[in-house]
């Protein structure tokens, strides 16, 4: 007996089909409650390993574990109904071999119910991407600035600022597209390069600080909401929730100190007595 769900989610092939068409709206989310809010407006929700920095206050994404990704991936699946949920493979969970990558990606798909995974790296990951895709794992690739390589890069600086670096980033983008990735995140590259990469491949490019020439955009939700202490320069702020939360908490603290809050007598009046 098959159990059909009434939830019709977007799939990796749906996103692939959006190349050159309506821009693809993507945001990160790590929780059921934010997933519920963004699901209505987003085509893709990424459970990014940026959760290590945003939720846990880590300096980099390197310490993030597969268990952390699975836990939050599951939460985002519970909170959403419509968007394609993509879960990041964390550092150390896919680079050693294509078999390691497949086994861990299969675990993420099985244990979260998400529709795709994301891996960082260009040409060096092409064989692994092809191996996973051939075995039923939809893969979103990630080139340009790849934050998991922070210890070899030395900083989170934009990539391709010199034209001499463009050929390498273009080869990376073409390699992951040819390997079968259904889309590719391009992070922190100059506008003309973002445009060139988008024209070079038949899969959608999802930019983050990579120009409006890409087929879609992704931002870290907390960055665009004004909740992150440090935000990359290219991020447009759509809210100032940090200030709003601080004000609400200050008002609450003042009410508690002044005993100016409703007690149970207002909520559950004693029977036979006036509230
Ligand atoms: O981890 C993440 O949130 C990401 C996005 C910034 C693309 O990889």
CATH architectural label: Alpha-Beta Barrel
Provide the structure class: alpha/beta
Given the structure, what is the number of helices?
12
The H-level CATH homologous superfamily, spelled out, is: Phosphoenolpyruvate-binding domains
CATH domain class: Alpha Beta
Share of helix, binned? 25-40%
Biggest β-sheet: count, sense, barrel? 8 strands, parallel, barrel
The radius of gyration over CA amounts to 21 Å
As for the number of domains, it is 1
The overall average pLDDT, rounded, is 93
> Strand content of the residues, in percent?
5-15%
How far is the first residue's CA from the last residue's CA?
55 Å
Shape: globular
Number of DSSP-assigned strands: 8
Small-molecule binders: 3-methyl-2-oxobutanoic acid
**Which sequence of SSEs, written as H and E, runs from N to C?**
HEHEHHEHEHEHHEHEEHHH
CATH level 3 topology: TIM Barrel
Which strands sit side by side, in order, in the main sheet? 1-2-3-4-5-6-7-8
Low-pLDDT windows of residues: none
Task: Report what the structure shows.
- The protein has one domain (12-240): Alpha-Beta Barrel (TIM Barrel), CATH 3.20.20.60.
- It contains 12 helices and 8 strands.
- An 8-stranded parallel beta barrel has the order 1-2-3-4-5-6-7-8, surrounded by 6 helices.
- The chain has helices spanning 12-16, 32-39, 51-54, 66-79, 98-112, 126-134, 150-153, 166-179, 191-200, 221-224, 241-257, 264-267; strands spanning 24-28, 44-47, 84-88, 116-120, 139-144, 183-187, 205-208, 216-219.
- With 275 residues, the protein is α/β, with parallel strands linked by helices.
- Bound molecules: 3-methyl-2-oxobutanoic acid (KIV).
- 3-methyl-2-oxobutanoic acid binds at residues 28, 46, 48-50, 88, 142, 185, 208, 218, 220.
């Amino acid at each position: 007996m098959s159990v059909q769900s009434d939830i019709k989610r977007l799939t990796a092939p749906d996103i692939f089909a959006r190349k050159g068409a309506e821009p693809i709206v993507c945001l990160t989310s790590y929780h059921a409650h934010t997933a519920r809010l963004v699901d209505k407006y987003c085509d893709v929700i990424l459970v990014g390993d940026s959760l290590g920095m945003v939720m846990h206050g880590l300096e980099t994404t390197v310490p993030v574990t597969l268990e952390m990704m699975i836990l939050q991936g599951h939460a985002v699946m519970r909170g959403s109904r419509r968007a394609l949920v993509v879960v990041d493979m964390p550092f150390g969970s896919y680079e050693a071999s294509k078999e390691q990558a497949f086994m861990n990606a299969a675990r993420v798909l099985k244990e979260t119910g998400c529709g795709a995974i994301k891996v960082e790296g260009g040409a060096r990951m092409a064989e692994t991407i092809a191996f996973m895709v051939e075995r039923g794992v939809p893969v979103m690739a990630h080139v340009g600035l790849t934050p998991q390589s922070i210890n070899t890069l030395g900083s989170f600086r934009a990539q391709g600022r010199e034209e001499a670096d463009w050929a390498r980033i273009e080869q990376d983008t073409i390699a992951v597209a040819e390997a079968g990735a259904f889309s590719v995140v391009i992070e922190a590259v100059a506008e003309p390069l973002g445009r060139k990469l988008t024209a070079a491949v038949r899969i959608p490019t999802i930019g983050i600080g990579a120009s409006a020439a890409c087929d879609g955009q992704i931002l870290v939700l907390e960055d665009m909401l004004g909740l992150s202490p440090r935000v990359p320069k290219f991020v447009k702020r759509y809210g100032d929730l940090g200030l709003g939360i601080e004000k609400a908490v200050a008002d609450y603290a003042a009410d508690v100190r002044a005993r100016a809050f409703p007690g149970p007598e207002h909520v559950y009046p004693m029977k036979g007595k006036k509230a």
